[in-house]
Amino acid sequence: MTGQMQKDCNGFDRRYDVQGLDAIDVAVLDTFPAVREDDPVDYPGEPSEIVITTDEFSPVCPWSGLPDFGRLEIRYVPREKCVELKSLKYYLTSYRFVGIYHEHATRRVLADLVKLLDPLRLSIDCDYGLRGGIRTVVKANYVAEDQKTAEQKAQ
């Protein structure tokens, strides 16, 4: 076997097809009111922080098409809307065949949820599994303009 044939047979040049960013199903996302209109009780204290985690976030590498697995954590303080969890699961699952780098995937989830929810604050942390002995953790944060302190506004 020649060197090139052996290389091809071993899969070094193999690449799996990936879907583009248009496969991310933003339309499936749904919301519900953060406060029930029929609840006669005022909610005391600071607004609630909602934390959602999944170990099943799995976009694919845009170069190889191989799956990446990450533990995704979403933290947000709602303004008026909360994300409905089943719709969020379908949204996150739509990344399953999308070729996207870790950094872009994390920021894309942040951007889509900020647009959907208009939260007071939102952060996304994604801890991707080891690849070649390298671990990647990507954090993306959003603070609504009306929630920023003077110091944050100056930056």
UniProtKB/TrEMBL annotation:
GO biological process: tRNA queuosine(34) biosynthetic process
Keyword tRNA processing set for record: no
Catalytic activity: 7-aminomethyl-7-carbaguanine + 2 NADP(+) = 7-cyano-7-carbaguanine + 2 NADPH + 3 H(+)
UniProt pathway annotation: tRNA modification; tRNA-queuosine biosynthesis
One of the Pfam families matching this protein, by short name: QueF
Gene Ontology, cellular component aspect: cytoplasm
Active site: C61 (thioimide intermediate), D68 (proton donor)
Gene3D superfamilies referenced in this protein's UniProt entry, alphabetically: 3.30.1130.10
InterPro entries, A to Z: GTP-CH-I_C/QueF, NADPH_dep_7-cyano-7-deazaG_red, QueF, QueF_type1
Subcellular location: Cytoplasm
Binding site for substrate: V83, E84, L85, H102, E103
Keywords: Cytoplasm, NADP, Oxidoreductase, Queuosine biosynthesis
Enzyme superclass (EC): oxidoreductase
Enzyme Commission designation: 1.7.1.13
UniProt-recorded Gene Ontology molecular function terms: preQ1 synthase activity
PANTHER family for this protein: NADPH-DEPENDENT 7-CYANO-7-DEAZAGUANINE REDUCTASE
HAMAP family for the chain: QueF_type1 (MF_00818)
Function, in words: Catalyzes the NADPH-dependent reduction of 7-cyano-7-deazaguanine (preQ0) to 7-aminomethyl-7-deazaguanine (preQ1).
Family (UniProt): Belongs to the GTP cyclohydrolase I family. QueF type 1 subfamily.
Listed name of the protein: NADPH-dependent 7-cyano-7-deazaguanine reductase
Lineage summary: Bacteria, Thermotogati, Deinococcota, Deinococci, Deinococcales
Protein's gene: queF
